[in-house]
Amino acid sequence: MKKTLLTAFLLAPFLAMAQSGNTQDLTQYVNPMIGTAKMGHTYPGATVPFGMVQLSPDTDTIPYEVNGQYNKDVYKYCAGYQYDDPTIVGFSHTHFSGTGHSDLGDFLLMPTTGKLQLNPGTEDKPESGYRSAFSHQNEKAEPGYYRVQLDDHNITAELTATNRVGMHQYTFPEKEEAHVILDLMHGIYNYDGKNVWTFVRVENDTLVTGYKQTNGWARTRTVYFAMSFSKPIKSYGNKDFSEPQVYKGFWRKFDQEHNFPEFAGTKLRAYFNFDVEAGEQLQVKFALSPVSTEGALANMQAEAPGWDFEGVRRQSQALWNKELNKIQVKTLAKEDLVNFYTAMYHTFLGPTTYMDVDGKYRGLDQNIHQAEGFTNYTTFSLWDTYRALHPFFNIVQPKRNADMVKSMLAHYDQSVHRMLPVWSHHANENWCMIGYHSVPVIADAIIKDNADFDVERALEACVQTARTRYYDGLDYYMDMGYVPEDKNGSSVSKTLEYAYDDWCIAQMAKKLGRQELYEEFIQRSQNYKNVYDARTGYMRPKLSDGTWKKEFDPLDTHGQGFIEGNSWNYSLYVPHDPATMIGMMGGKHRFAQHLDSLFTMELPDKYFANTEDISRDGIIGNYVHGNEPSHHVAYLYNWTDEPWKTQERTRMILKAMYKPTVDGLGGNDDCGQMSAWYIFSALGFYPVAPGSEQYAIGSPAVKEARIQLENGKTFIIHTKNQRDKNVYVQRMELNGKPLNRSYLTHSELAKGGELTFYMGAKPNKKQVSMP
Amino acid sequence: MKKTLLTAFLLAPFLAMAQSGNTQDLTQYVNPMIGTAKMGHTYPGATVPFGMVQLSPDTDTIPYEVNGQYNKDVYKYCAGYQYDDPTIVGFSHTHFSGTGHSDLGDFLLMPTTGKLQLNPGTEDKPESGYRSAFSHQNEKAEPGYYRVQLDDHNITAELTATNRVGMHQYTFPEKEEAHVILDLMHGIYNYDGKNVWTFVRVENDTLVTGYKQTNGWARTRTVYFAMSFSKPIKSYGNKDFSEPQVYKGFWRKFDQEHNFPEFAGTKLRAYFNFDVEAGEQLQVKFALSPVSTEGALANMQAEAPGWDFEGVRRQSQALWNKELNKIQVKTLAKEDLVNFYTAMYHTFLGPTTYMDVDGKYRGLDQNIHQAEGFTNYTTFSLWDTYRALHPFFNIVQPKRNADMVKSMLAHYDQSVHRMLPVWSHHANENWCMIGYHSVPVIADAIIKDNADFDVERALEACVQTARTRYYDGLDYYMDMGYVPEDKNGSSVSKTLEYAYDDWCIAQMAKKLGRQELYEEFIQRSQNYKNVYDARTGYMRPKLSDGTWKKEFDPLDTHGQGFIEGNSWNYSLYVPHDPATMIGMMGGKHRFAQHLDSLFTMELPDKYFANTEDISRDGIIGNYVHGNEPSHHVAYLYNWTDEPWKTQERTRMILKAMYKPTVDGLGGNDDCGQMSAWYIFSALGFYPVAPGSEQYAIGSPAVKEARIQLENGKTFIIHTKNQRDKNVYVQRMELNGKPLNRSYLTHSELAKGGELTFYMGAKPNKKQVSMP
Questions:
Q1: How many other C-beta atoms are found inside a 10 Å radius of the C-beta of residue A600?
Q2: Which residues are the signal sequence here (chains A, B) (predicted)?
Q3: Which of A62, A690, B192, B749 has the smallest CB count inside 10 Å?
């Protein structure tokens, strides 16, 4: 007791310092290039935390379809940039971070010199188009800043951003005529017909406005822009690349290609010519809006009124430092700092701001709405992010997380289905993946008392969502207690995830005193049992007649009743009730053996071809870290008598799956979920079941971490005897008192304080397992 | 003097009566079927004066292109309806009246019974689709009301409308399952690719919302809707008719065709099923908005909150009677009443309301604007309507005409070109035809003191428009004084019309004391002289080297430097200075002979094929009444010594070109211009040069007309000795005093009073001609 008080006393000045601006330059440890090779699907460009604009180079123009066939190469370009590519096509203003399907890439700008070329050209012949060769030696990426030398045009291009404005700076070493290409045909996951409409007005000799409407992952998506040049346009033009057509002859009855200030169509490229002096810098501001060109212009005027590229860059980096400083860590090696802060950087890339500075945004009904008292966000990759990203936000971004819930509730209000988002971006539900995982996000916020939103309405939205019979097999699930594989594919994954989501609803209902709802949904949460085949010991697809599907290979991922995971992995997906699951699967000892096999077996090669979204490196044995369904699995040892194996495995995964290299991510970062797993695990605990107060204990990889909470408190993690080989927790103290259990609670963390891990090279086999 | 006072005294009680509601049922004389056969291009459906909704049957689905070739049959369907067609495809909610190019036909609804069919079928086999045979015996059209029996489905369909809401009533004689088809692929002047996007939400079991975006005559056009059924939908669905495509596979991962409340795409048809009892009436309200589905719904709630079809019909007809009663006429025959009030009906069909009940509307910049203190209008067919329609509005609709000018100024403010509208509809400039004829509309309003708008700003807008060098040959016109045919086609028509428009600017400048502008534009207004070839006596295309174009056939319409008129007709186009023109062309006598030839020559057949937009009946000799450039021509005799020929010709044209039959219009009604010519001429005067105070005197066809002015005054026209053969004006009295001239001024008219024509069967050859 005495010691605790002393500690608190000693901490007081340090806390004060942290609060009053003991801000370190942590951006130095962030390397935005990490994940840009292979399957990470991150982008290296400029953005601010949760920013609307992601201004980043795109290195090729790979269409989704070629000759009516799916083009599998498109997948590499989910974030527009592939590290191994030798050319840059240009800089577009919207990108997803780490997704496994894609969209966006709006409004590609490319500065060129020499002959005006309006096609992008090809990678092997960059001189055949406006694209340029570049080399990584002449490339630099920092939070909020990106620079590259465009070799073919002898231009240094620099990028920075505010929330809603991308800012370009092009330096021309020679006096010549320069062109800025605005390619409205460019896009990520592009295909013929994706551009529904584009519309451009040259408002005056420095200002251009317009919009682009696409039919892609978001089916009905419109982005507006306002683009401003730092010097007057000398001349300009546009070209329509669409097929000749009788009707179009009616238009353009006089020259509307040259210096004609209005053009519209589906396949347009525009160019703007400037005379530049040797050494001259041309700046371009490019503001976005989900509402209107008027909104985009207001965003520009509010956020980047002047022509101070360096100022915007500094401001952007300051925003990053503010967020990154929410956790100050000490590590054994610098590369761990790079891993840690790059992970934090990745977690703060989304969800993204989706409203104008005046609070207006486009809703799912395509009408314009006003965000009253909250920031409206989009890019909800919820099947991924409910697991660790939103729980992480409940620690370091509770205000933003509550606003994200408010954004989901606005989505619900606007949804004609009366459903919370499944996977939504830019005023669209794209129905990607399965489940209704807005529910655990909301439950986690409510259970962790970070519910600065209307909780009754939130519960209502969750219940209504969970009762949408026509949604993806829910009718069968509600009527039969499972999704029958012959009626609806990926049926086991759906049954398991619905059951977990239902448990989350039950937890909220319980907390809010809604006993009837609690009963209904705690009952539904047991449905996972209906797809457990005791004979094989696996979760297994069941048919509508109640029999098991005959053909069954628990190692195969495809066509087996699962999605992004095989039965081996997915059979462990009962995050809300591991104890019962373990009992069902043969008890603690047998279950621990099962986990051991998962991590150590040799997966036959034939199964790799079928494993989505991850590189060969994303698999350890048969444990697939590169996809999400197993993210809690290493922590399940805590429910056996061998919690020390959680410690061992998680430290091993941290090393194996996260490297401070361009190809360092073992799979898609998935909007920060992979990175959030890193942060939690590096801190030594993990939210196995969001919607619960509990964090399962792992093994901290940091030496020390100071988590600055928004309530003014600080939670400090000390790791005694930290070494690479000392992965085993010997004992723990919370605020100086022994912590004899395998979990920490959120309320303990939220109060601030100190958690001390005492580490060692050998397991403490007497550690208390989870109840 | 005494007599004048007495007249005023006697009139007083009658005026009071007229003002206090001596409203006759004049809708009985309106036949909306007039002009629906051949080239009139009118539609027979339901609308209110200047209404946003024009709910009317479409009788076929003729595309603009077939196999990449222009399909000339499309032209017949400018208004969607052709009287000779045996089938009705359905009822769509937007139509132009009388245009010679087209667009719209939005949101086709069709009630059916029997097997659900989602394609329209063909005319020869209506049973092959949802369309239906019908017969004119079972069809009725009145202002604000339309009814037809759909033979194939045994349904009586009735239509009525408010300003922004179309209302349908379908009566089913038998108990059965009924379908309402919503065909989002349908459109007028349709072609593959015209539908840019359509988006639909089934909000609940009676309400559907959505929008349609097209790339047609209006390049970037979006119309929103809200549709409400009087009883709950039993079941519904949608079908996507677009080509299979790899990417689309991503969508619709579960059944989204049946009872799934959200669909979007480019080729969609939807259906809504209802069980109906024998004799049951299903009502549908269909509201439009240029802004949003929210706006459409608010429009519906404001204008048609209930389910009172008959009430809406009565209200619509009351609105018509209110407008039609602005001129109460007595005629020799009932068929003249039908001609007169049908003409008035046609003049009040547009421009059309283009804003929601809250004043919001879409601007040319595609942003949402608020109309402050005026009604925003669209559908400005200005090349047609500046001639007589807007001058007519300056008499009977000055408030609306001022709002139309305000709408044009809003267009100007939003135009990236800083130009007033040329031909605009639905937030688009479509650049149709030539000139900048917003200018005469504005000038006419200012000169006639109907300028309840910012006149300085209006003048500025006119000047700015007239100085847009890149617009359609204006650079040459400004630099060389004419448009050279080798640089820009239809060069003579353009030169002549620019010159007239410039004169209008000069008149405004003069009135507003802007001497410098007056000088500049009065100078430009003389440019018509630069294309007069004294050797041939015709206006003739000149080349950029100053020589006349060699090949020249003044009878031919095409490729001769003119548009919608040959040189014979267009050479008379100097409305602002007929006296000088007549002098230039050889003096009064020779000019009158020239006019005589125009009306009496026999035009060789080969020239008819080249004459646009009019039927064979639309030509008298070589005088083309069916197109606009000659509309002032019959009045030019007033500038010769033979004004009585104006009287003779105009009475002849009234008889020949306007008949109370379905094919009674000699050419496109052109948004009311043809009809406005009728009204003016039937009243006995015509605005030869809008922008001038003067109306040239013709020969009244009415026996009496009481024109109710908005200032509370009444202007009465008496025609003494009116007979069909008494076409010659013997003398006139204005307010009892002899009027010894060939014109009336607007200010005389605006004061109220009485104009008495004394008619006879022989010309008064001593009549005073125009100065």
A1: 11
A2: 1-18
A3: B192
- B368: nearest CA partner in chain A: A292
How many inter-chain contacts (A to B, CB under 8 Å) are there? 124
In this predicted complex, what is the ipTM?
0.95
What are the strands, taking DSSP E only, across A95-175? Answer: 108-113, 132-133, 139-142, 145-150, 155-161, 165-172
Q: Rounded CA gap, B56 and B96, in Å?
A: 10
Sequence-ordered list of residues with C-beta below 8 angstroms from that of B10, at least 6 positions apart, any chain = none
* CB neighbours of residue B275 within 10 Å: 12
DSSP label of A665: B
Q: What does the pLDDT average to over A444-469? A: 98
**Residue B228's closest CA among B281, B170, B301, B177?**
B301
Is the predicted pLDDT of residue B5 greater than 70, yes or no?
Answer: no
How far is CA A244 from each of CA A611, B193, B216, B388, rounded to the nearest angstrom? Answer: 44, 12, 15, 39
Give ∠ CA B667-B106-B136 in degrees, rounded to 5: 55
Asked if residues A332 and A703 have their Cβ atoms less than 8 Å apart, the reply is yes
- DSSP H or E run through A384: helix A382-385
Q: Does A42 touch chain B (CB under 8 A)?
A: no
Max CA distance (Å), chain A: 88
CB of B293 within 8 Å of a chain A CB? The answer is yes
Q: Where are the domains of chain A?
A: 1-30+325-354+553-771, 40-322
User: Is B472 close to A199, i.e. CB distance below 8 A?
Assistant: no
With a CB cutoff of 8 Å and minimum separation 6, the contacts of B750 are B448, B449, B709, B711, B713, B715
C-alpha neighbours within 13 Å on the C-beta side of residue A235 = 5
Report whether CATH 2.70.98.10 matches the domain A40-322.
Answer: yes
Exposed, middle or buried by CB within 10 Å (0-12, 13-18, 19+), for A228? buried
Q: Which of A68, A253, A294 sits opposite B431 (nearest CB)?
A: A253
- The Cα A173–Cα B107 span in angstroms is 57
- Residue whose pair of structure tokens reads 């500046």 in the numeric block: B386
Average pLDDT of the residues in B279-286: 98
Superfamily of domain A1-30+325-354+553-771, CATH level 4: GH92 mannosidase domain (3.30.2080.10)
pLDDT-derived band at A18 (thresholds 50, 70, 90) equals very low
Inspect the interface and report whether the beta carbons of A368 and B365 lie closer than 8 Å: no
Q: Which CATH class is domain B38-322?
A: mainly beta
Report the CATH number of the B1-30+326-354+589-771 domain.
3.30.2080.10
Q: How many CB atoms lie within 10 A of CB A305?
A: 10
Extended beta strands in B32-89, E state: 56-58, 65-66, 69-70, 87-88
Tokens of A221: 């998506």
d(CA A167, CA A315): 12
pTM score > 0.90 for this model?
A: yes
**CA-closest candidate to residue B294, choices A480, A366, A81:** A366
State the amino acid at position A97 in one-letter form. Answer: S
pLDDT tens sequence across A375-406? 999 999 999 999 999 999 999 999 999 999 99
CB contact under 8 A, B470 and A70: no
Integer Cα distance of B213 and B195 in angstroms? 6
> Given an 8 Å threshold on Cβ–Cβ distance, is A219 in contact with B246?
no
Distance CA A564, CA A573 (A): 13
Residue B334 CB: number of other CB atoms within 10 A?
11
Give the C-alpha separation, B425 to B80, whole Å.
Answer: 17
Q: What confidence tier does A471 reach under pLDDT thresholds 50, 70, 90?
A: very high
Helix (H) or strand (E) holding B412: helix B398-414
- Does a cis peptide bond (omega within 30 degrees of 0) precede residue A351? yes
- Residue A694's contacts (CB-CB under 8 Å, 6 or more residues apart) are A687, A688, A743, A744, A745, A746
What residues of chain B, 115 to 174, have a C-beta less than 8 Å from chain A? none
